[in-house]
Amino acid sequence: MTIKFGIIGLGIISTRFAKVLNTVKDVELCSVASRDIERTKKFAKQFKAQKAAATYEEVINDPDVNVVYIGLTHNFHYEFAKKCLEAHKPVLCEKPFVTTQKQAVELVNLAKKNKTFLMEAMWTRCMPAYIKAQEWVKYGRIGQVKLITANFSYRTPYDPYNRIFNKETDGGSLFDVGIYPIDFAIGIAGGYPQSVTGSAQLAPNGVDEAAAFSMKFENGELANLACGFNVRAMEEAYIYGTQGRIILENCYGPQTCTLCDENGKTIEKFKKPVPDGFEYQIRHCADLLRAGKIESDLIPWEDTVASAAIFDALNKQWGINQ
C-alpha cells in the first residue's frame, strides 16, 4: 500500500522532509499548502506533489491524503494537529509537538477518542544507532544507568524576527533544540522525571536564548542537559552506567554509538550511515499507518506528554508564560 502524504507549512523543515520523502519507496507526496499559492505551486513542482492546495484545510480534508505532516512554526502545531484529528486525519507533527502539557494531553485524548493516528516527528527515536543504544541499556550492557549528558547548542545572531527568537512563533532554545536532549534522556531512562530544575539566559525580547537543566528520574537516573543559540558546543551524548558507558555522536540524529567499559575502552561499535535520518521516520510512520496503528511504539504518546510537562516546569521557573 502506497502511503500518500500531505504537507502544510512549506519552510526549511518541510523542504527537507519532502526531499527525503521522494527517496523513500511506497510513499508519495500528494498535496501541499502554504500561505502563498505561488510558493505552494513552486514547491509542488519541485518535489512532484500531485496537488498544490489553496489552504491548509484543503490538504487536511483531501480524501486522497493518508497523513498530514505539519511543518508549521511552533505556535500553529496545536491548532492544526487538532483540526486534523477532528477530521479523523492521521497526523505527523513536527517537534516540538506542542508547547504545553495541557495541549499535549488534549490532543492525545482526541486521538484516542477518534481512533486517529498521531505522532510527534521526533526522528531521533527512529535512528538505528539510538535504538541500538536503547537495546544496550535494556539488556544491561552498562549495568544500571546513573547519568545521562546531552547537549544541542549552536551559534546564530539574535534576530527577534527570526522564528527561533520570535515570541509570536513560540521561539526559544528550549522548544527548538532543547526538545532533543530532553527526549533523548526520556527514551534512555525509560521513565519520567520526578524533578526538573534549570537556568536560562534570556534574549532581549524575553525568550530563552540558552538553557542548562537537570532532571532526576523515578529510578534515580540523573540527566544534565543543555541547549542554546549562543555558542556551538560539543555534541556527543553520554550514557553512564555502573558497568560502562555508551557514547553517541549527538543527541538528535546519531548514526553511530559506541559501547565502552568503565575505563572508556571500546567493547563494541555500531554504525549505520544514511544520507538523511528523516528516511527512518517516514518509513516508520508509513509502516504504522499500513498496520492500522494510531500510536508509535518508538515515540509513544506518554513520552510526548512528558516532554511538554518539562517545558511547563522550566518555563515557570524562568518566568516565561505560555
Unreliable stretches covering 5 or more consecutive residues = none
Question: How helix-rich are the residues, as a percent range?
Answer: 25-40%
| Number of separate structural domains | 2
Note the quaternary state here.
single chain
Shape: globular
Name the beta content range: 25-35%
CATH superfamily descriptor of the largest domain: Dihydrodipicolinate Reductase, domain 2
Residue-averaged pLDDT, rounded? 97
Number of helices: 9
Main β-sheet, in a few words?
Answer: 8 strands, mixed
Strand order of the largest sheet: 8-9-10-7-11-12-13-14
By CATH, the architecture of the largest domain is named 2-Layer Sandwich
Task: Assign the structural class, choosing from mainly alpha, mainly beta, alpha/beta, alpha+beta, or little secondary structure.
Answer: alpha/beta
* Total E-strand runs: 14
CATH first level of the largest domain: which class?
Alpha Beta
Return the CATH topology of the largest domain.
Dihydrodipicolinate Reductase, domain 2
Q: What is the C-alpha radius of gyration, as a whole number of Å? A: 19 Å
- SSE run: EHEHEHEHEHEHEHEEEEEEEHH
Determine the N-to-C terminus distance: 41 Å
Care to describe what's here?
With 322 residues, this protein is an alpha/beta fold. The chain has two domains: 3-121 and 279-304, Rossmann fold; 125-273, Dihydrodipicolinate Reductase, domain 2 (2-Layer Sandwich). The chain has nine helices and 14 strands. The protein has helices at 12-21, 37-46, 56-60, 77-86, 101-114, 128-138, 173-189, 278-290, 301-318; strands at 3-8, 27-33, 51-52, 67-70, 91-94, 118-121, 145-153, 193-202, 208-217, 222-228, 237-241, 244-248, 256-260, 266-271. The strands form two sheets. An eight-stranded mixed sheet has the order 8-9-10-7-11-12-13-14, with helices on one face. A six-stranded parallel sheet has the order 3-2-1-4-5-6, sandwiched between helices. Strand 5, helix 5 (101-114) and strand 6 (118-121) form a beta-alpha-beta unit. It is globular, with a radius of gyration of 19 Å. The N and C termini lie far apart (41 Å).
